[in-house]
Amino acid sequence: MLVLTRKKDESIMLGDDIEITIVDVGGGQVQLGIDAPQDVEIYRKEIYEEIKAENKEAAAVKVKNLSDILKFGDKSSKKGKL
User: Which region is the signal sequence (predicted)?
Assistant: First the structure.
């Protein structure tokens, strides 16, 4: 792990197109500003871990046949209707 010391309003660069700026420090927290291309996905680690777990769970679902998929689709499409 690389450890850097930065002060408020100082930045670090990741490659040529991602800049991380220290916005504020205080109260046991650091606020970061991240300037990155729109195609770069940025998540807090705990959210990223949840997404990975949900994707893993979804990939493990076994579908016996096409009728199972159609039954699931019918149930989910009725949820939002009044």
Answer: none
- In whole angstroms, how large is the CA radius of gyration of the chain? 21
| Close Cβ partners of 66 (under 8 Å, ≥ 6 residues apart) | none
Residue 61 gets the label, from left (phi > 0), alpha (psi -120 to 50) or beta, of: beta
Residues 4-36: pLDDT tens digits? 999 999 999 999 999 999 999 999 999 999 999
Give yes or no for a contact between 59 and 53, defined as CB atoms under 8 angstroms apart: no
Higher pLDDT, 58 or 76: 58
Within a 13 Å sphere around the CA of 42, how many CA atoms are in the beta-carbon half? 12
What is the mean pLDDT of the segment spanning 61-78? Answer: 67
